[in-house]
Write a structure and sequence with these properties.
347 residues, alpha/beta, Rossmann fold, 4-stranded parallel β-sheet, globular, disordered N terminus, Sulfotransferase, Sulfotransferase_dom, transferase
């Protein structure tokens, strides 16, 4: 067991019994993972491990297997699904604010002191590694999140009949956002590969939770099979005109805005509260401030870089952009996904 795994295990365990049980499961996962295909990662001392057609770092794959074994979803819960750096923090902020809008006003909103990521726990990160966090021990919480592709979600999620929201983003901006985000990681596994090498690996599917396009397709297929159960969103179109999408999201969740709330502009205030500009400038998300309830590897500010549509143009060459656009056209051809994006744009 590596130093990092020991540190996490020590942080987790509340007593000797829990420690023994957790370590027993973790050893089982590690033994299983050792039989999977491994490839070079985005750092010198990091491997990517293949499982179910997707690639993971060791810690995330252990969390995935643990969630598959033990996480129990309820029909009344909501699962927020996304690939990393496609609008997850924004979606968490929006859904939490929609559900809790009657509990807080602008002066008492918890975002003033805590990061939006804290209020919607990841089933493959928080649930296995940080079970003591308050939101996981709140039986009234109905919001959960995952970066797992659809095919690797726990059976309880699929069988529960719960509603799901998926958000995706142009792969070029997804890559740039991911690369800059990982560059902020306080890692002992060596420096991040340069942008060109990382881009080549991203295009070949060798990336965290990748291949990215397969990740999107796994949820698109699930959406096509049961559109009433899943809301399928695109980051760029939401950024261009967030208000109608926030209303759509609230309605889908069963928390639609009332006529009285419409008159008071509650939805507009919520959109402003959860905007990138507002969240980025909150004191809790500035500088090197970190979450206090977990083994932290990213400062809060790392989650708020630019959120700009088309920022990839400042970093990718035309040839690089053409490569990834070609892959997207090929993967999404005849699936209806690209047409769906255009229809959303005209909403």
């Amino acid at each position: 067991m590596g130093t990092e795994a020991v540190t996490i295990t020590t942080f987790l365990c509340q007593d000797e019994t829990e420690s023994t049980e957790f370590e027993k499961n973790q050893k089982r996962y590690q033994d299983l993972i050792s039989t999977f295909s491994h490839s070079k990662g985005w750092r010198p001392e990091e491997s990517l491990i293949e499982h179910g057609g997707h690639w993971f770092i060791q810690r995330r794959l252990e969390g995935c297997l643990h969630a598959q074994d033990f996480f129990q979803m309820r029909a009344s819960d909501l699962m927020l699904c996304s690939h990393p750096k496609t609008g997850t923090t924004w979606l968490k902020a929006l859904t939490f604010s929609i559900v809790n809008r009657s509990r807080f006003d602008e002066s008492s909103n918890p975002f003033l002191k805590r990061h939006p990521q804290e209020f919607v726990p990841y089933i493959e990160i928080d649930f296995p590694f940080y079970p003591e966090v308050d939101v996981l021990n709140d039986k009234g919480n109905t919001l959960f999140a995952s970066h797992l592709p659809h095919g690797l979600l726990p059976d309880s999620v699929v069988k529960s009949g719960c509603k799901m929201v998926y958000i995706w983003r142009d792969p070029k901006d997804t890559f740039i956002s991911l690369w800059f985000f990982l560059s902020k990681e306080k890692s002992k596994r060596g420096p991040l590969n340069n942008l060109e090498e990382s881009f080549d690996m991203f295009c070949r599917g060798l990336s965290y939770y990748g291949p990215y396009l397969d990740h999107v397709m796994s949820y698109w297929k699930a959406y096509q099979e049961n559109p009433k159960r899943m809301l399928f969103l695109k980051y760029e179109t939401m950024r261009a005109n967030p208000l109608p999408y926030v209303k759509m999201l609230a309605e889908f969740m069963g928390y639609g805005f009332t006529i009285e709330e419409e008159k008071k502009g509650v939805a507009e205030k919520l959109v402003n509260l959860c905007s990138f500009e507002t969240l980025k400038n909150l004191e809790s998300n500035k500088g090197e401030k970190e979450r206090k309830d977990r083994y932290t590897i990213f400062p809060n500010s790392a989650y708020f870089r630019k959120a700009k549509v088309g920022d990839w143009q400042n970093y990718l060459t035309p040839e690089m952009a053409a490569r990834i656009d070609g892959l997207m056209e090929e993967k999404f051809k005849d699936t209806g996904l690209l047409e769906h994006g255009k229809m959303i744009n005209d909403y």
